[in-house]
Amino acid sequence: MKIVVTPTISRLVDAHELTPEIIQEIDYECSFYYKGAEYTNVPMWDGLIHMFKTKTLTFGTGLLNRISNILNKYNIPVEIIKQYPSVTEVDTGRLTISLFDYQKEALDKITNHDRGVIKLPTGSGKGCIIAATVAQKRVPTIVLVHRKDLLYQTQNRFRREIGISSTIIGDGHAEFSNVTVAMIQTLLSNLGIRTTGYEKDETEIKNVKEQLLKYNMVISDEAHCLGTSLSYKLLKHFKNAVYRYGFSATPFHRDEALMIEAAIGPILYEKKPTDLAGQYISHAKIIFVEFKHKGKIPKLVRYGDLYKQAIVNNMERNLLIKRLAERFADKRVLIAVRHVDHGKILNSMIKGSCFVYGSLSAEERTKVLESFRNGNIKCVISTVVWEQGIDIPEAEVLIDARAERSVLGFIQLVGRVLRKTDIKTEALILDIADKQCRWLREHAEERIAAAISEFGKGFIVKHVI
Fold this sequence. Notes:
Elements: E1 2-5, E2 9-13, H1 20-29, E3 31-33, E4 48-50, E5 52-53, E6 58-60, H2 64-73, E7 79-82, H3 101-112, E8 115-119, H4 126-137, E9 141-145, H5 148-161, E10 167-170, E11 173-174, E12 179-183, H6 184-190, H7 208-212, E13 217-221, H8 229-236, E14 243-248, H9 254-263, E15 267-270, H10 273-276, E16 283-292, H11 303-312, H12 315-327, E17 333-336, H13 340-349, E18 353-356, H14 362-374, E19 379-382, E20 397-400, H15 407-415, E21 426-435, H16 440-455, E22 460-462
Parallel strand pairs: 1-7, 8-14, 8-15, 9-12, 9-13, 10-12, 13-14, 16-21, 16-22, 17-19, 17-20, 18-19, 20-21
Antiparallel strand pairs: 1-2, 2-6, 3-4, 5-6, 10-11
Helix pairs in contact: 1-2, 3-4, 4-5, 8-9
């Protein structure tokens, strides 16, 4: 049997040895259940998303190892035929910083594999490895990000760490070059693919499909953001990208994992916070601060209305957050909220605080970030715009006021304060854990379970539920 491999799609040919049972096993290993399938009205659908197409015997090339292992199990000899385009060597700078041992290990994996995912804790310096990868491969490269802050942060990192003036796509900029940093949503909208869940961007790009063909390497920062059908479609347009790497600090669900694997590749290297705590990232104390809600919530209330009543406009709860922020007034405090209205209320209550949210320009956000880093601002309240990817090593205390159910968001948020500095070796995370309130108690329980799973019991100071 032969497997014809291209950077995007591969297919099985001369597959006479494939029995229906083997095809069924491959299909099962490359499928996942579509969340909410039970509520759809699609006749003759099994509720699964099939990443292996049984009629054409095609699949995303990232699944090559998974499928090859199944064929090897049945002693089916396989010949791999790579139909890769030629790559162009270009100047992509030179690494000017030193890497830690675990970063070197991750880079070694990248050196020896054309594609795959690097999973490291937030604050462990994934951006440094991305810069090193760009400098090492010396091919036209595009790096995908999903927020404006990350767009400029990555551009500045490349200028600082590998001496390259990269161009950016997004926030009104649309210039392609040998090294380009691009917002996912900007590319998707210009490809005519409607997007939801991303920070809005309306930058227009000319000849986007042709431009994407110039790149021999595509890198995704925060690779878990690619675990959607939209981003999977986007990566198919990088038909000449023979090198594909994803970086993430977040555990993947099976659906995300399979889609990311199909588009990029399997996990090449992984470390957990407990592997790096102390030497490379800060020790952390995670305290779940109990808040007991008073009064009964009507049974028929919608979640959105409950959230406004119990979280956004709950004066007693907001006073607790204010007291916690004031208790650590000598440290740099980051307060996370979900709703803009909530942030505005806390901003009015906490003297000297600053509020960062989506409507602020990238320039305004950058000014706040720099003031926070140098200590001119001691307390910043932020919505989701600073939840993922942004480097804030100076943050010493995190107050999570969101009452979120999202385990991924919680882990990403905690990571914002884990990076070590010359004066910070320990981070403090205060999570407002709601009790005696429908939904919110369950959300708190899930965050506690996520903290134990991801960071270990040694990080948890107090259980309150």
